[in-house]
Design goal:
Blueprint (H helix, E strand, L loop, with lengths): L19 H9 L3 H23 L3 H18 L9 H19 L3 H11 L7 H20 L2 H12 L4 H8 L3 H18 L6
């Protein structure tokens, strides 16, 4: 069991030296400076995660990003120190993304946005064409994955979160997370024509 988080009692205006856990505890005590510090530390990672997950235009991603940190503010008192704060925030973003995907009918745009955000890495025109085709196949396969498999793959393989932390953030058993990750990887390999490994 983790130690109980105590609300922050600020002696100075500098929140940069505080841990994420201390900032979450301060948020639970309704300290807006702590929320701003958490946002400053994690908004770029959460934005990138939402782009990869939802694959919608930037206006919607920005709304989801804002909603994520509003949920951090509202749910700070429920945070348990068993997982990293960053991973917990990803879990909130994943849930909001799931709600958005369920109600939004712009699935075709997701693949295009995902492809635009991936870096180019080809040295010849033939390599560039082959890479582009691979990325299109990957994006199409990712687009077809069930939400839970997609979240597991993005959290573990793209965001490089530890499986145990990702499982806690998503509220599932570690074995369930690894099963989802395995199924996602298998589907993506098949989509790229690589077959079983």
């Amino acid at each position: 069991m983790g130690a109980k988080l105590l609300p922050l009692r600020r002696t100075s205006g500098d929140s940069a030296a505080l841990s994420d856990e201390a900032l979450v505890a301060a948020c639970s005590a309704r300290d807006t400076t702590a929320l701003a510090a958490l946002f400053d530390r994690h908004h770029k990672d959460v934005h990138r995660f939402l782009v990869r997950l939802a694959g919608v235009d930037d206006d919607v991603v920005d709304d989801l990003l804002q909603d994520t940190f509003l949920e951090v503010w509202e749910g700070a008192a429920r945070f348990r120190s068993g997982s990293r704060v960053r991973t917990w925030i990803f879990g909130i973003a994943a849930n909001l993304g799931r709600q958005h995907v369920r109600t939004d009918h712009r699935r075709k745009a997701r693949a295009a946005v995902y492809l635009e955000r991936l870096p180019e890495g080809a040295s010849t025109p033939g390599d560039a064409l082959e890479r582009r085709q691979q990325l299109e196949r990957l994006a199409a396969t990712l687009d077809e994955l069930p939400h839970d498999l997609k979240v597991a793959w993005i959290l573990c393989d793209l965001e490089e979160e530890r499986g145990v932390d990702a499982a806690r953030a998503l509220g599932v058993r570690e074995g369930t997370l690894y099963r989802r990750l395995h199924e996602a990887r298998r589907a993506l390999r098949a989509g790229l024509g690589e077959g079983e490994r």
